């Protein structure tokens, strides 16, 4: 089947829509307990139609991690080009990551549960995740000699920042009292303040 | 069998020793994949002797979570009685929690993997964990009206602090380049600075 670019982008949009529904199911039920049937129901598709977009759950999981990491990498590269100081860079990247995790991924752990991926795909994801973590660490590192940030082990500080954000998969509920943007702002303020001189 | 208090404390010491070995195995292999045999080998006991101290893996897991939460609660209450300011209180509780997680628990997720507990035990653990989180939040809250800390949603700030620490189960290795005390100090400094005015 030859796909035109219109068809291609229609399929991509549909895949993103499925991703969002699947992430919600993964959050509610856990990845192991979620079946293709649950995902189909969540996005209002017949199971047969879902298989047109994704072969299996692993493929959805991979697409989920790959797409969110692409988004985070894009955001990090955009932030790196901005003509703003290190504190503002850090604040922006934190807001972007929180919004990606809480909004796009519905607070699910899908982007983190890499153990369910086959080794070949896992390797690709780990490479992208390492690249993203390096970009965040670079922001932390660059602020230190310039005197904008206090001098601390940049690797440990980066792990603390990423950890505070990643742990949100344990407590965030999309129907909770706080909006994703509000949470993102408090986290960005708190975590940036932690390094600012 | 009637146990004298001497026997009792000998058994308790042995149980703590087993706990440490088990936590190391849980970290290396994951809780699901670890068997009583692996734990016995790690602590240099015959499997039969291990069963004298713990009926099964769930019992070790419960003892692990219960003991570490008791330790955290004790530390939090000790800190609450100190005649020091909120920033110093927060710094100390962070150091205590990090050392408990990295040293006692060998950086394992055993204290967090509550889904493996039967409901009755799970409920007890959740009650203790909530009590601990309240004590940490109280430190954060108390610093705000006094002007020691900036005014931010104390619940979100507490979640960020606890999350940064808890995420260490994903990256900490007891044989890594950084000692637990060094990591604890950097985390305490960074996270306290995040709220200090």
CATH architecture call of the domain at 57-193 in chain A: Orthogonal Bundle
* Average pLDDT score of chain A: 91
Globally, the shape of chain A reads: elongated
Percent of residues in helices of chain A comes to 55-70%
Secondary-structure map with pairings?
Two copies of one chain form a homodimer.
Chain A: H1 5-29, H2 36-42, H3 47-53, H4 57-81, H5 86-104, H6 119-143, H7 154-166, H8 180-193
Helix pairs in contact in A: 1-2, 1-4, 2-3, 4-5, 4-6, 5-6, 5-8, 6-7
Q: Can you walk me through this structure?
A:
Two copies of one chain form a homodimer. Helices cover 69% and strands 0% of the residues of chain A. Chain A has helices at 5-29, 36-42, 47-53, 57-81, 86-104, 119-143, 154-166, 180-193. The model of chain A has no long low-confidence stretch (mean pLDDT 91). The longest helix of chain A has 25 residues, at 5-29. Chain A has a domain at 57-193: Tetracycline Repressor, domain 2, CATH 1.10.357.10. With 197 residues, chain A is an all-alpha fold. Chain A is elongated.
């Amino acid at each position: 089947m030859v796909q035109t670019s219109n068809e291609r982008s229609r399929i991509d949009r549909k895949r993103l829509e499925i991703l969002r529904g699947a992430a919600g199911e993964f959050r509610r039920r856990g990845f192991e307990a979620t079946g293709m049937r649950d995902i189909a129901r969540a996005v209002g598709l017949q199971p047969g139609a879902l298989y047109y977009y994704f072969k299996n759950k692993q493929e959805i999981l991979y697409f989920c991690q790959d797409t969110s990491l692409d988004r985070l990498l894009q955001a990090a590269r955009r932030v790196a080009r901005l003509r703003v100081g290190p504190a503002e860079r850090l604040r922006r990247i934190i807001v972007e990551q929180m919004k990606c995790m809480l909004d796009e991924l519905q607070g699910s752990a899908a982007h983190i549960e890499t153990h369910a991926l086959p080794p070949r795909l896992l390797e690709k994801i780990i490479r992208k995740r390492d690249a993203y973590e390096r970009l965040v660490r670079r922001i932390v590192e660059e602020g230190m000699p310039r005197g904008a940030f206090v001098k601390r082990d940049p690797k440990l500080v980066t792990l603390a920042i990423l950890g505070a954000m990643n742990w949100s998969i344990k407590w965030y509920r999309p129907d909770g009292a706080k909006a994703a943007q509000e949470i993102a702002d408090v986290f960005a303020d708190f975590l940036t303040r932690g390094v600012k001189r």
